[in-house]
Structure formats: C-alpha cells, structure tokens
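Internal ticket #5521
Category: modeling
Description: The requester needs a full-assembly model to guide mutagenesis choices. All entity lines are attached below as received. Residue total reported by intake: 1455.
Assigned to: D.W.
Attached entities:
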Amino acid sequence: MPRPEIKMITFSIDGREVQAPENTMLVDAAKYGDVEIPVFCYEPKLGQPVGACRMCLVEIEGIPKLQTACSTPVKDGMVVHTQTQRVHEAQEAVVEFLLLNHPLDCPVCDKGGECPLQDISFGWGGGRSRFVEPKRHFQKPLELSPLIAIDRERCILCYRCVRYSQEVSEDYQLVLQERGAASYVATFDGHPYVAPFSGNIVELCPVGALTSKPYRFRARPWDIEGAGTVCTMCPGQCNVTLTVRDDRVLRVLARDHEEVDDGWLCDRGRFAYQSFHVDERITSPLVRVDGELRPVPWDHALDVAADALKRAGGAVGALAGGGTTNEEGFLLQRIAREALGSPHLDSQRAPVDRRSLLAIGDPGLQATVPDIEYAHAVLVLDTEPVDEMAILDLRIRKGVRRRRVRLAVASARPSALDGNAALSVRFAPGGGPAFAAELVAAARGEAASDDARAVVDLLRGAGEDVVIVASERVGAALAALADALGLRDRDGAGLIVVPSSANGRGLREVGVLPDAGPGLAPVARPGLHAAEMARAGAEGELTAFWLHGVDPLRDLPYRERWEQALDRATDVIAHAAFLTEGIREHATVVFPVEAYAEKDGTLTHPDGRLQRVRPGIGLQGRNRYGWQVLADLGRRLGLELRVLTAGMALAEVAAAVPFYAGLTQDEIGGRGIRWQEREAASAYPRPEGLPDLAAPTVREGAGLRLGTFRSIWASPEVEHSPALRFLVPRQRVEMAPADADRLGLGDGQRVVVSANGSRVEATVTLRHAVPAGSVFLQDGLVRDAANTLTGSVVEIRPAVTSEVAG
Amino acid sequence: MSNEVRRFSHGSRVPGWDDAVDLTKEPASVPDPATTPVPDELRAEIEAAMAKYPDRRSAALPALAAAQRHHGWCSPEAIEQVACVMRLTPAYLTAVATFYDMFDTQPVGRHRVYVCTNISCSLRGADELCERIEQAAAGDPDISVRHFECLGACDIAPMASVDGVYVGPIELDEVDELIDDIRNGRPPLPRKQLRLRPTADSLPLDGKDNG
Amino acid sequence: MEKLLFKDIDEPGLNTIDVYRRRGGYERLRKALAMPREAVLNELLASGLRGRGGAGFAMGKKVSFLPKGAMDVYLCCNADESEPGTFKDREIMQKNPHLLIEGIIIAAYAAGANKAFIYIRGEYVLQADILDAAIAEAYAAGFLGENILGSDHSLSLVVHRGAGAYICGEETALLDSLEGKRGNPRLKPPFPANQGLYQGPTLINNVETLSTVPFIIEMGGEEYAKLGVENSTGTKLVSISGHVKRPGNYEIELGMRSRDIIYGLAGGPPDGRKVKLWFPGGSSSPVLTGSDEDLDLPYDFDTMAKAGTMLGSGAIIVVDDSTSVVEVAYKTAYFYRHESCGKCTPCREGTNWTLKMLDRIRKGEATPMDLDIIASVCENIMGHCLCVLGDAMAMPVSSMVKKFRAEFEEEIERRRQEADLASAMPEPELPLIQGAVA
C-alpha cells in the first residue's frame, strides 16, 4: 500500500505565513510556526481526533464558529487566529469548566510539575473561578490494578485512556460508565484492568488521575533526570527513557520511535525496572567454594574462570541469549573459537542452519516495522507477537484497524490476534515449518492443503505488499515463501523474523552460531548446536559450559538432558543477573550481568536496525561492563582483544561483520540505523540455496499433542519486580472442551500432565478456540515448566488429592 | 429529586465513583464460550439480533434488552452472557448499558413505572404525582418507580409508562387504582391508555378541555 | 386546510396494510418507482421540504449531497423523538406506520440506499411493535425486499430500538448508538452524508419528513411547495402541551399565526390565566413571551429565526403565569444536565454548573450576581460544544434570564428571605478534604 505523499502548503497563523504538510491537523501544523495550541484529548497515537475537550478552539477566517484545531486539517491559504479575544475567552472558559470539580491538590499530586492541566491552566486559563459550589470529593486513590491507581476527582474525562484501551491495545477493559457529569472511568464489575499494555494509560493521562503505583511519591519532576536507552527484555527493543534519581531507575517511559515501538511499551518493559534494584540481583562475581557460591574479588573470579575454560578448551560449549549485546556476543565467539579452539557456540532455541539463516536474513527480503502498518496483508506465522515480541501486537492491530490491512494468522495455539484476523488457521503443535512448506507449495501453485491455499489466496488477493511476521524456528521455508509471493526487493514488503532472544538477530550476525562466524561466514569446522551440546554434555563429550545470559534449565528445551549435562560438567561459567535454578545449582563461576540501564553496547533489531543501549545509571554494586569482563577473560586466555571501551568493542564488530562495516556509535545515534540501508549492506553474503524444505511432518498418534509457549510474564525480571510479581504465571494446561469432557476434566481442576515418565502439575484452562487433540503448556516457569516433559504426546489425569494436600 | 443529596457529605453523588477494583478478580476479557454457559433462548435471541445488522456490534442494544428481559436486570452475569455470544468484552457492554436510562445495572422490581417529570408534565403536576406513586408503591419490591425525562406524551400529561404502556393524564386520586392494577397484573388504568386516544386534531374544536 | 399527514388518522385499522392500501397507500411508491431516481430527487428539491426534526435543513438537498458510487448507502429514519414537548412522530408511527414505510422506500430509492433503519426511542414500545408488524406486512406484500414491485430497487428495513437517551436524536449520536456504542455525537465533518453509518454515506431524516415524501410524489413537488409560505413550505405537525386546554398534535400550514395555534387550536391557557412564556420549538428553543408581539408572529422557520428563536421540532410548550420562571429554567437545565453525554467539556460541566446555580436560586442561596454568572456560563457553552445539546440548554435558559430578569431577581430575594439568611451557608458535616491525601 503506497504511503501517502506529503505536500507542503502555506497557511497563515497569527499573521505569519507558515509552511506545513497539507492535511495535518492545525494543532500540529501550528507547531511549524512555533505556535502552541493547548490540547487535552488530542493524541495522534490514539487515532482519529475526537474533539472532546474543546481546549484547542481557534478562529478560522470564513468559518463563523470557533473550530477545534485538533480536528481541522490545514489547507492551503487558511487563515488562523489563536490570539484573538474570542479565542482567549473560549479557552479561558474551557479551563474554568475543567477546573470546576478538579481538586487542585497539586501539592500532593504525583503529576505536579509535569502536568498538562497545570501548564495549560497557567498558560491559557483565566486564573480565577466563579464556582462557589463545593467540589465533589471521593475516596482516593483507588486501585485500578496492582500497577495503576486511579483518582477520579482529578479526572477531566479527556477520553484518552479509554480510547487507548479500545483503539490501541483493543483489550476493551477500560471504559467510561454512566454519562454526562456522572461519567467515570472504570472496568467491568470491579475487575482489575490487567492487560499486557495497560501501563501506557499512565503516560497518556494529562492529569494526575492515573498514576503508576510503583512510581507514586518516589520523586518529583524537578529532582529526576531522563536517560534514553533501549529495553533489552525482548526482540521488540522498544526505545525508552529512564527516569533516574540518585542513580536509581524509578520509572520507564516510552521514547517515541515510529520505526520501532510507535511510542508504546508493554507492562514488562515499563515496570520490570524494579528488578534492577533488588537484593536478589547478582552484583559481585561469585565462585563456588565447597558447594556454595561465594562473592569473590574480580581477579579471583576471572582467574578461576580462565583456568576452567583453558582446561576444557575445545570441549567448552558456549551459549548466549537474553540481553547479550552484539559486542559481548562477538567477543564471546572470538574467545571460544580462537582462544579455546571450541566451535560449539549457539544463540538459538531451535536449530536453524546457516544457509537458511543466510536466506531469511537477506536484505532483499526484509520488511521494516512500519511496513506492517502499510502492507496490504500481514501473515503472522507460528509466533504469538504479544508473548514473543510484544510491541508488534499493537502495530499489527493498528494496521488492521486504521489501514485495513488484511491479517492472516497461522499458528498452533489460538492467537490473541485471531479477533483481528480475516483468516486464522491452526496446525498441530510443532507443525510450523511443515505448514510453511505447504504455504510455499500453495504459492507456487503446487498441491497443498486447503488451509495453506486459503492463506495464500488471502495474501495475494489483498495486494502485492505482504509482510510475514514469523518465528525464527520456521526457518528456510520463509525465504522460499517470500520469493514465491514475489516479495524480494519490494519496498514495504518482506519478512520480520522474530528471534528466540532479545538480540537474536545481532547474535547470529556476529557469529554466535555453531556453523557460522561473524557476518554469517562459513566456518571450517562446525560445532554443536544447543540441543546437541546438551547431549554431548550429558555424555561427557563437553566438559564445560559458558552461559551468557542463558539458563538452559529455564530457557531451552530438553531440561532433563541439560540437567544431566550441567551436572556432569566440570565447570559452568555463567554471566547472569539472577540466580535462576540452573545457575544456582550448577554454576562454578558467576559473573554479574549489568541491567540494561547500566549497559553500554549495541543490539540488532529483528528488522536490522542497530540500536544503542546506553548507560542511564552507574554500574551497580561491583558490576563491570560485560565487554570488559570478556576482554579480561580473553587476555587471561592469551587473546589480546584491543578493547578498552564500548566504542572499541563496536569497532571490532564492525571490522569483522562485512555488512556492519564502518558502523560507529555516532552513526547509530539515538534513533538507530538499519544496516540494510547502508552501503555496506552490499557485502551481505550471497545466498547459497536452501536446504530441502520437506520439513518433518508432525507425528500423528494417540494422545494429546503438546504445544508450548512462553508467556510475556515468564521471566526472572518479572519475578524479581515486586509490582509485577502478581503476573508471574503458574502452569496451566489449555485444552479444548471436547478433550476435557472425554477425560472427565473440568475448568480449574488440578491435573498431572505426563509424557515418557516425566510429569508436571497444572491447572486445566478450558478454551473454546483450542483445537481438539492439542494441549498447551507454558515454558520459562520456575516450576512445572513444559520443558520438563520429554515427549510431545502427553497424557492428562486428575492430580491425586493426596499429592496436592500431602 | 436527586438534588436532595446532602452537600459536603463525603458520600458520592455519582454511583461507582468511590469504587475500587477487586484485585482478587481476574481481568475481564471476552468470556470464553467453554466456561460461560448461556441459556439457549437468550443465545438465540442475541444471535437473531446480530444477524439483522451488517456489523454484529450493532446488536448491543437489542442484546442487552434481551438479557434484561431474561434476567430482570443487566446483572454482571447477564452482561457476561451477552459478551460471550457477541464476542465483546463485558466492560464494553457495561459502558453501553450504563449510558442508556432503560438498562438497569442495579436490581429492580418486575414492574417498571417511569413517571415523566419533564417540563410539560411538571406544569401539570407531575412532581406531586411522581411522589404519590412512589409512596403508593413504597415497600413493594415488585414495583420500581422512577421519575423519567420526557417520554414523548405531553398530550396526556401528567403521565407514566407502566412496563412500556403509556397512561395519562393520571389524576392524583387514580394513583391507588393504578398501583392496584399493577400489583394484580391487570392492564394499568385501561381508560387512560394512550393507544385508545384519538388525535387532538381530529376532535371538534368545541372548546372542551381534553387535557 | 386539507390534511395530509393526519388525513384519516383515526380511521380504525389504518395501521394495517389492507386499510392503508384501500386509502391509496403504496400507490405513490408505484408512481415513484416508475420515475427515474433523478426525477424523484427533483420533486423533493422542488417541494422545498425542510427537515421536521429540528434543524430544518432542506430534505432534497440532503439527498443530493450523497456521493454516487459503489459504496453501500444507508438511510436512517430518526424516530428518537425525545425533545421535550414533541410527540408528533409517535402519532404517525402508531396510527399510520405504512405512510412512514412508504416514505422511507421512496426516499431510499431517491438516495440509492438499500439498507434502511428506523431508530425509534426505546420508550415507544407500542409504536415499535406496530412498526415491526407493519414492516412484516410490507415485506409480505413485496414493498420491501429484493426488486420492489419488479423494479431494480431493493431495500431492507430494520426497526432499531433505543434504550433511553435523548442525545441519540442527534444524528451522529444516533449512528453511534445504531452501531452498538454509547450514543456520543461525532465530530463533524465528516458529515453523515459522506461518512455515516458503518462509515458509509448515510441519509438521516425525521419520521415526519419521510412521511411527507409520499404526498410530494402524489402532488408533485411544485404543488406541495404552494402550501405554506416561502421558505417554509408544506404542512407541519405541531405538538402543543403545557398550560393549554387542548394539548395534542395538530397539522397546520406553515405560516399560521402563533396565536391561532395556541388559542385557536389548543384553546389557550386555563381560564383566568395568561401566557407567560412559550417555547416555540421544543424545550431547546429560546422562549418567547406572552406579549401580543410574540403571539402574533407567523409560525414558520424564517419568522421564528428572525425572532431570535427557532421552529425546531414544532413543539409548542405553553407556560402560564401560575408557574415561576425559575422552575421552568430549572426543569430545562435539569433535563439537559441529565441528558448530556459527557463527551465535551462545556456541555458536561456547563449544564451541571448551571443547574447548581439554579438550584441555589430555588433554595434561597443565590444573589442576583449569580444571574450574571448563569448568563456568562451559557455564553461560554454556546458555540463551543461538540454538538448542539449544550446550546440546547444554554439558549432557552439564557433567554429566560434575559427576558425575565426582573422576575428572577424578585424570586431570588423572596426565596432568600424564606430560607432565612442565617442558614444559607451550612456548616460542613465532614471535613472537606477527607481522603484527598493519599
């Protein structure tokens, strides 16, 4: 879908000629002439203006009534006045109306000092009120959710929060009830407003009516500083501004970036900053002495780790994940390959071979995040955006709602986007690659299933610009599909491949792969991928593991095998922020990992945008920068890395990855840059053909097929943020009512799910939309996680009461 | 009249404003059909309403009306059932239900009596009539009397709508009879029902007072 | 004058299709369908028919604004008759539903609409039931549905019942309500003719307007335009209520002298009483007084506008000298405060504030200065709102304050004395800012 062309026009505002893009709303157009028009309800991110607050009334020549500047598109030759007597009187009147029942409790209000109502009352109000009646008073603050407090006295009914709930996050949980002067913001029957993106309403509120409970009364606007960086908790890599006071992060705000996050944040990104400042965080190196991890001086820890790695040499298996930066990943693979002589490196949850990665990462096939919004059609394939790359969920909804993008969803588990989709199809758990292969066949006009043909017909029928948002695990077929749909080299179309960790794309491009080095270059001797490492460890072939931001027991499949491997390993060197189970039980040396607020480095967004993570607070405790720790380790292992600053580390990366050539921190700047848009992109290796697409078909058989997913809330940061703890998921098994009936199970019942002798306990959750024959369990949990199960066909029976009670 | 609420008192004049959420509840998303039973009759009525419109959401008003008939009022349970069939959130429907005067989001009696107290009716004594009807029905949980804004029957002022049946002009001494009719399930004041009234324009201009 | 809308209105069974057809019903539809669409539109334009809902916009022009194209065009009949004092549409729908249906089919034909809705206020249970039955009859007789009377015109018609909200009579709020939302008015532009129901072009007309359409087809637009006066053509139903002897609906020719309506048709106020003030077009119109000058005004759109008020929905509410103007103003403000949707600030807060001030006058707690504030608040509401509901309170209330200022001041003084000045400022019963601090 072609993006609208922008035409500049000239209009007059307060007697001056100003150039502005045609059809922008007057409020925005006025800014081109440095004229500010006050607004409360207007917020372009919420969609069409509603003209409710009436604050922005202006005079336009030729129109008898005053007009709302928020809803009047500017036209060539328009003559606008914002400083006439009439306008002043109208604006004063609106401020007076808004303040009638506003409590003016600014001294005890959290918003005081950064409050649009304060500012506008001061700038445009009459400074007096003729209202002698008593104001209304209510109990306050009240809880709207565990995260948000509501103060209805202060509310000016601007509609922003409810519009957000209905038109952006589309959770439709927050609404206005009653009408007229009795209207108020509330939820259904006292249910809390809990949704993945609920925190955005705090930032939208132009008064102190909605406040963040974790932030309330922690700071005043005049004793805080803002520090811009990038959230590293998921591949979305939203741009944020940290509110810092006394070297502590007290709040996270969105730092509007249209190409990345569109100015929204998920609640994990917004509130998990609390985990930066909790006692459970590791802020000192630890070494296991007599079976216990004890804090030690840095040099000691580095010596112990270097010795251990040296001892194991080529039998080291190295994994990177979490918020590991490009620099850290690059240094890690260099040390492993060059100093240790070990080719065993990985950063992926499920193995995708180099040739496939090369094909799906090809610059000619990449879409950008805004393309989702302007595409004719979007296919969401084998991924659940809200869990895996949260911010895309809002972007896809925006595309469907505002630009009528046709959406197709193909997944095993019912998706949060099904309601927006023109077509949703289900395949068996684990069947993503197979279904993708069918889509390729359908797109090529070969024999394919009805579902696959329906999806391809929908995409083709919508138009040429198709964006495919897919999980990395789908692999090679994605490239074939994009080509078959004619998306190569098409602006506004292509792939967005969601990796399994926040910087998954960066890590594979800097060479944290078993079969590829920096720049996806082939390696002479490929190593083992993650799952093979577990086996090799369990069998004693690998004797040490080096874990950077990964806890295999938590983050990777085959938990049982990993347990054996870590147990048997002589040494486990971990870089971690929290002592999750695998680290706590098995690590011999633990290096603290900085929170992203302390980090200095770069990430690569799934659409190829390199972004800087910049320190907003100093290193906590005895922390050191990750690149520094790795450089120190390298030196001890005899590898001189020439890295003394984060910038030098980036220079090393840029020198090694041909298509990153010449990148500097300055060039990346505060908004990032997509490497595909730089000249060096031409150095991307030529694709070398695709492996056979005939993906393994899902085994059919008796029993229920198990699908797994990792909730947005299943992460150590959530567990360690007091405000978010209520969201920590507990295991539940989602199943179809028909299956539950057959097994005599009811909603809410405790059950044991077992496979091959392994078992987890869970609570039954009946979902109408789950296809019969499939069940779903969660990964990434502290206990009873799905990766405990060793098979993909499960049995479910009621938990014996004595097991629960006893 | 509601303006009798005491000033300065802490109590809210706006129901709901003082209510916090209950944090032990789960967030209210679209109810899952697997766990939300809906009476067949109600489901059929809602689905029939949805089929009438190009956009199913248009059926919100008729669906809520059906649920109110079925449950007596728009209870949370009723709203959840509508939400389940219409694939909307209960909050959305609550927002709609509380906007319109004819949806009761608090329990009410089986019989609804709306007494018009708007200008034309009040000029003809509606305020006193409303008070009298309220008194006469006081203590009867089956009859809910409320004053209502203009019901569009100023020609029979002062009037009331009894379960949708327009009756007027009601004299003060007819109030007991009216309440008695309602209690006993009889048509309310049949001789005063609007449906039997000729159009004023077709009556001879004989100077007779027909009000 | 020959009646059009009220011809045979009390004929028993007129609400059934048989009797209606025996009276010539649906013949005008046959005639219209035999004409090209443009010809039907031209008749509507020639008739000069102005909307009978309140705004008085030329109906034919409204139809001609609809864009031509492949999009679905909708017709909505506004039967949310809620303006206090108005009850004319109720009479048509109850007694002659097929006249409305026939008018809708013809108007839809002219507008190129294939889907029509009648948005009827939820309180009109009897009338909605009658319409439902009549529509079923019309479907059965082939006047609704596919290829009506063998023409290429198809139309579906659904009765949509509201649920008690005055604001849904505002055309864009009506559309939101019909879409299953809270009845909040929308920003204009875009106007419904371009983007209305389900974002499609939409024609919205009042019951009386649409019911007039068959007569225009029958008589021809030019002939119809001979009725009434210039710029206010045709006949009009007026609803007269309040302090008159014969309240009810009357069909008049526009331009009739107001006095003849109030005294002649409705019998005037009870014996011994004088007209103090009257609303010429529903409770949202600025009031006129009982002076000879006002009573002698011809009742038509332009004269009323010139007199600083409006014909509105044609609902005349008469108040005699037994009632205090304060009570009338209070009732008026109370209604609009109750019915304000709350979307825009001046209306939501302004109606609430005005009511509080009027309430203080009633309780003897006001001073004449409050009258200035009322006037100023009304001034601040007018022209600043999203829709006209705020103005609908501000106009009559400020007109009352202006025209009856002396009476207001007298009342303020009298009630202040009654209320005993000493108790005018009660002590707070509870601390004012309880709970205000976290």
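Resolution: model delivered.
Comment from assignee: The longest helix of chain C spans residues 345-362.
Ticket closed.
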